[in-house]
Known about the structure:
By secondary structure, the protein is of the alpha/beta class. The protein has a single domain (6-195), classed as Thiamin diphosphate (ThDP)-binding fold, Pyr/PP domains (Rossmann fold, 3-Layer(aba) Sandwich). It has eight helices and eight strands. Strands 2-1-3-4-8-7 form a six-stranded parallel beta sheet, sandwiched between helices. Strand 5 (112-113) and strand 6 form a beta hairpin. It is globular and about 45 Å long.
Amino acid sequence: xxxxxxxxxxxxxxxxxxxxxxxxxxxxxxxxxxxxxxxxxxxxxxxxxxxxxxxxxxxxxxxxxxxxxxxxxxxxxxxxxxxxxxxxxxxxxxxxxxxxxxxxxxxxxxxxxxxxxxxxxxxxxxxxxxxxxxxxxxxxxxxxxxxxxxxxxxxxxxxxxxxxxxxxxxxxxxxxxxxxxxxxxxxxxxxxxxxxxx
Length: 198
């Protein structure tokens, strides 16, 4: 997969995740920072099955990999932004090498850095995260740029074994309006219970 024509991206991030994961209770979610964390919190209603890497930019994929390896009977989904993904792009190599069948990586890519002033990101120019994932050795990669592609995305996250990389190219704009629990201690305790299946 090569460079994307930005003019062909028509997907609104708001409402995209529920179309892909209509029953979020079946998954353990690990999120990156900011917008993707809000999108995921709205998806799960800030559920106990979601853990957010607040203050740890770049750690979501590595943490999700560890969870997938530690709980092979559970489906683990990492939801991160393009900035988060670029911060630790080498983690894709480890994901491919370990090849956990129960891991899905979802990158919500708006081509910009909303938390630091809206600067253009690398993926708005020449960088293809799909090509990087494939080059790392992840065999199952899908890029979605419009609403029609969400049907394919929903099938993609269920069919066959992981690891899989879903690249959601979305329009610039605000993430889902949702205020999640920002108390890290409470979130850690409740997620531990969900992880252990309690």
